[in-house]
Amino acid sequence: MHGIDCHVGGERKMLEKFMDRDKRMTAREAVERFVSDGDSLVIANCLYATPYALLHEIIRQGKKDLTVFQQGGIDELDQLIMGKCVRKLVMAYNFRVAGERIETVLERALRRGELEIEDYSNYTLLTMLQAGAMGYPFLPVMSGIRETDVYHVERAFKGEKFGEVTCPFTGEKVVVVKGRNPDVAVLHVQRADKFGNAQLWGALINSKWACLASKRVIVSCEQVVDEETILRTPHLTIVPGFRVCAVVEEPWGAHPSELLGFYDYDMVFRSVYFMQTMSEEGGQAWMDEWVYGVENRQKYLQHYVERFGVRYLQELRAKPYPSIPADYGATGRRAWDDNDVSFNFQMTREEFLRALEEKGGFVNG
Description:
This protein is α/β, with parallel strands linked by helices. The chain is 32% helix and 19% strand. The strands form three sheets. Strands 1, 2, 3, 4, 8, 9, 10, 11 and 12 form a nine-stranded mixed sheet that branches. Strands 5-7-6 form a three-stranded antiparallel sheet. The protein has a two-stranded antiparallel ribbon with strand order 13-14. α6 packs across α8. The two termini are 47 Å apart. The N terminus is likely disordered.
């Protein structure tokens, strides 16, 4: 089922169909099973922890006609466009190296009419995902958006980009955005367990809402850890396992972006990318070398080491700076002990039920 809408309740059976208890698989299998031509795809997070390993697999498998949601991109959108994967692009920001002197991949595609685009602000795009995640048909946004071209210029979402409702308290017109439920979210995190409980720290941006709004979620992670690790750090879980379809263990899966606790931005690598993609021929050569020419992330890293040396890769590794653990301790006391006596009421369950009955605690028996 393709397209985007705000009705997720009917998707339950479809989600159950996708759900295995142990969700570990390769990136190739995850993309084959859960991404289809014509899907709407949201790249969770932006400018940090970008799920490049999953995006490169989507390109290698030649997925077509995707509607891609991305709040802020650097080079990942360019790569999806060069891979001929994108039909519509919904975005708030995309990095432009060297200002107007250089025509980017995105600009070349727009000038040739190869894809449709819709501009939002970061806040309005995020609000669409929030509404979708919470099951709302729409949510209000700041009315100041009316003063911008973002409000007045409609392209890919013509006729449904913004709406207006009357405030029941003031009678004023309020600008709203439609709730959106992308078919697939792709997310990269530091760690996850085999059940799909995924933990992310550092900049979270739209990660939670992108995942909770989406019908299917593919998670790649630096490490698959045991369930106990997840249970002892519940505040780091960004998406619960019951919403996740696939877990892909993919070390360096967000390179060349940053991932706190693991590695830094690779600015040299990105500089090479931007220099090379100034021309279409150079862009195609980059894709042939770094996407099509390597069959998976492991081969990508091997090629990186051959090209630049292992020393440079090691210099990108983060220095340890562990957080102080939070104490989640509690008494662990149960409501009823082994003798069926309540600690709070100091009576047995039978005595408790009798007391409730005598005091009129039961209604209609």
